[in-house]
Amino acid sequence: MTLRLSVRKKIALELFRQFRKNTTRIHELNYIFWECTLKCNLSCLHCGSECKKESEVRDMPVADFLKAIDSISNHINPNKTTIVFTGGEPLMRTDLESCGYELYKRGFPWGIVTNGYLLNQDRLKSLLKSGLRTITVSLDGLEDSHNWLRGNTNSYKNAYAAIRMLPESENLIFDVVTCVNQRNIDELIQLKETLKEAGIKDWRIFTIFPIGRAKNYSELQLSSLQFKQVLDFIKDTRKEGRIKLNYGCEGFLGNYEGEVRDNFFFCRAGINIASILADGSISACPNLRDNFIQGNIYKDDFAHIWNNRYSVFRNKEWARDGICEDCDSFRYCEGNGMHLHDEKSGTLLFCHLNKLETGNR
Fold this sequence. Notes:
Blueprint: H1 7-26, E1 31-35, H2 62-72, E2 82-86, H3 96-106, E3 110-114, H4 121-129, E4 132-138, H5 143-150, H6 155-165, E5 173-180, H7 188-197, E6 202-207, H8 224-240, E7 244-247, E8 273-276, E9 281-283, E10 295-296, H9 302-308, H10 311-314, H11 330-333, H12 352-360
Parallel strand pairs: 1-2, 1-8, 2-3, 3-4, 4-5, 5-6, 6-7
Antiparallel strand pairs: 8-9, 9-10
Helix pairs in contact: 8-12
């Protein structure tokens, strides 16, 4: 694929490419996800992990996770390494506070990603008292659209109530994420006003890809024109300046680069980001399993894994295949986000640039 870029943008992308190469060479670990549970109180149509109320994989004991963190503490700067609890739904666990407080004592800032269903004033106070620093809550459209996606008629009410609490909390970094689909795409303007009224200043938008449960629901996938519509909405909202809006970190967007995100596309999985999954597997972003697993905390040293493996993430020449083989933009994209590759074959499942080019025809 040949992409026409302005001279100014091409220069910027070339400079950023050099920055990316240097960052990859250093591969400083500064973000760790802990998949602390595979249990979830909702049944979301777009779930990539097949999470449910009762999981066959038991929750990892806090002591096991902390042991892994302690094993890598001498190789990183705890004050500059954020640890985020994800799932499943992290708030299904009642011992997050004890784990969070132990991380706080070790100097790690920590946070959670939540659907907001179980977040009330008492739980938020408890988490904050234990050192909670960041929180991300999902709100996927207006009430009917959100509840449809989340599979629960009370989900919107609880998530919105959780969101309204966040601006009242001191020293808490927070944002809201929205997964756009065919049902909620025309609600984005109204949703923006809803978030503004709730006091939200940071908002992220993601699109949904045919992975996990999502591949069974065609309504979750945007057409090429709808995808472009979303990016144009983000671009216009950023110019408007009333709320800080970013598109997710998934893929290279051609001429939209520099227009819809604070930074150019850079998949940092395995470069600055690691994860510990519910069964102890060591990966990069929590969505990456199967052949992308690098080790396991129950048999491997976390620090050794980080320093000596992850080659599949740090040298992506293997991804120069299929539609990527002759694409001029591979130097900027390197095969798109890692989670958009088939976890067994490595085949690219979705190309943002191809989607945009189709919409321009």
